[in-house]
Write a structure and sequence with these properties.
single chain, 218 residues, alpha+beta, Alpha-Beta Plaits, 16% helix, 45% strand
């Protein structure tokens, strides 16, 4: 299993169904991650052959951003300013279990942006780690969970939490036609520290410094 530790100074993982103001998902959608992995490896990485889990933290704020200039019929220009939600000081942990792990690890340094074209990556580190399934809630509460201050996507509908309908992966048959369409999936969102309290069992990424809590999304 791989863990990609990614840092970005800012990003907007745009919610495509909302136009003004422009809103961001709190973490990158899985479709964004799968697309980035396909781009750097040139391999058919997708939700059928690759499992992912995403945790992370950031600071959210709104900015007024000039998106484009609209030229009117009278040949006069008008600046279009749209309120945009931005995430700052982003740190992500993306967990990957795939038959393409070697290719992803070898090409991780090619990850230069995640989200919009201007959402640059300032740091990416790759860690090869072991997965451990823990079926003991009491023991889990006593472990050093490194990413306990992160937030995480998860799929368990029995927990009351914020829900997002998130692009999960592109539909390959449409992509070949040059059309961007994707499968959607309802994902929930919660602090890792709270999510741990609801878990009887848990998947952990075992690192040299301790444990990372993760929730496989597929």
């Amino acid at each position: 299993m791989l863990r990609l530790n990614i840092k970005q100074p800012f990003a907007c993982y745009r919610v495509a169904t909302v136009g003004n103001p422009i809103l961001s998902y709190p973490l990158p959608p899985p479709a964004t991650v799968f697309g980035a992995l396909r781009n750097i490896t040139e391999c058919p990485v997708n939700s059928e052959n690759t499992q992912i889990a995403i945790t992370g933290k950031s600071i959210a704020s709104f900015s007024h951003i000039v998106n484009h200039v609209v030229v009117t019929q009278a040949s006069k220009s008008k600046t279009n300013i749209i309120k945009t939600q931005m995430l700052h000081d982003i740190e992500l942990n993306i967990f990957i279990k795939s038959c393409f792990e070697e290719e992803i690890a070898q090409n991780a340094n090619k990850l230069v942006r995640l989200g919009r074209s201007e959402d640059i990556i300032s740091q990416v580190k790759v860690f090869q780690e072991e997965e451990e399934e823990l079926i003991d809630n009491e023991k889990l509460s006593n472990l050093k969970i490194i990413n306990s201050n992160d937030y995480a996507y998860f799929v368990d509908g029995n927990i009351v939490s914020i829900s997002y309908q998130v692009p999960f992966d592109t539909i390959e048959s449409y992509v070949k036609q040059g059309i961007y369409r994707y499968h959607k999936k309802n994902l929930l969102y919660m602090p890792v520290s709270n999510l741990i309290k609801h878990r009887i069992s848990a998947n952990l990424s075992v690192s040299k410094k301790g444990y990372y809590f993760l929730e496989w999304l597929n």
